[in-house]
Write a structure and sequence with these properties.
mainly alpha, 69% helix
C-alpha cells in the first residue's frame, strides 16, 4: 500500500545517490559501464554475470531492488568479477584489483555509515510480504 511505496521510493533515492557518488570517483571509471566486448573479447566466456554501475542504476529504475541486501548482491558482482577476470600479478591486473577492492570497501562503508538498520528491516518486511 502507500506506506510500502514510500519506503521503496526512499530506498531507490538512497541507492541512486550511492551510485552517483561512486560514478564521480575517477578510480571507478572502468566500473561505470559494461566491459566492452570489442575491447575484451573473451570476457563473457569467463564472467557469467557481468555487472556495472550503469546497469545497477537501470535495475533501480526498474524497481528490481526491494532491500539493500538485494542491491548489494549485484553491486558485489562488480568487484568480484574484476578480481576473477584480472587474477595475474602483472601491473594492469593488480591496478584493476586495487580499484575493485577500493570499490568493495567504499560501498560497504557508505551502507554501514548511512543506512538506518530499522529502515532496512522495514524493506525486508516488505520483501517478505510479497
Ligand atoms: C572493468 C574490467 N574488468 O575486466 C577488465 C579487463 C576491465 C576493464 C575494461 C576496460 N576497457 S572497456 O572498454 O571495457 C571500458 C572502458 C571504460 C569503462 C568501462 C569499460 C578498461 C579497464 C581499465 O582498467 O581501464 C578495465
Amino acid at each position: 500500500e502507500e506506506q510500502e511505496e514510500d519506503v521503496l521510493r526512499e530506498l531507490r533515492l538512497f541507492l541512486r545517490n550511492v551510485i552517483e557518488r561512486l560514478s564521480l570517483d575517477r578510480r571507478f571509471k572502468a566500473f561505470t559501464k559494461p566491459v566492452d566486448i570489442e575491447e575484451v573479447p573473451d570476457y563473457m566466456t569467463v564472467i557469467r554475470r557481468p555487472m556495472d554501475l550503469s546497469t545497477l542504476l537501470t535495475n533501480i529504475d526498474e524497481q528490481r531492488y526491494v532491500t539493500v541486501g538485494e542491491f548489494m548482491n549485484d553491486a558485489d558482482l562488480i568487484w568480484q568479477n574484476a578480481l576473477e577476470y584480472n587474477p595475474d600479478s602483472d601491473p594492469m591486473d593488480r591496478h584493476i584489483r586495487h580499484r575493485a577492492c577500493a570499490l568493495k570497501d567504499t560501498v560497504r562503508a557508505m551502507i554501514r555509515d548511512e543506512l538506518d538498520e530499522d529502515f532496512e528491516r522495514v524493506c525486508e518486511d516488505v520483501r517478505e510480504s510479497r
